[in-house]
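Protocol step 4 of 5: obtain the predicted structure for the target chain.
Materials: sequence only (see below). No template structures provided, no constraints applied. The aim of this step is simply to have a reference model before the mutagenesis design in step 5. Sequence pasted as it appears in the construct record:
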Amino acid sequence: MKEQHWRNACEGRHSSSMKRICFVLQVKPNRLEEYRERHRTVWPEMQAALEEAGWKNYSLFLRPDGLLVGYLETNDFERARAAMAEREINRKWQQEMSVFFVQPDGLPPDRAMEPLEEIFHLQSTHRQGWPNGSVSRKRSAS
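Step 4 output (structure tokens):
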């Protein structure tokens, strides 16, 4: 079981088969404050749709230059994204949000989300020891 948990962590998955997804988009610098304001009041119907479509633990982080980093957990990102694409509330939200983004290809924001490759993840289980059973020990100061 411990070996499987380690393998799942290396694959960017939780032991419950949830995948961690991270993506970046670029918000237009002249629209940052309005973009922040719109996300203080995300429509309840949109929040419910995201949850129903399998978007869990979804967060957005915004840098002062407009770099937007998104993070979510889901069993299947393409299925979760497709489920949102079928919803009218999402079409309305994406249409309203599209004016905030620098999108060279003209894609709506939800289609421009390209998952980043996860190259490291620290599991809380590492506090107990390493996958091979060894335990990290601090050296005592002499």
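Step 4 remarks: The first strand starts at residue 19 and ends at 26. The domain at 17-115 is CATH 3.30.70.100 (Alpha-Beta Plaits).
Proceed to step 5.
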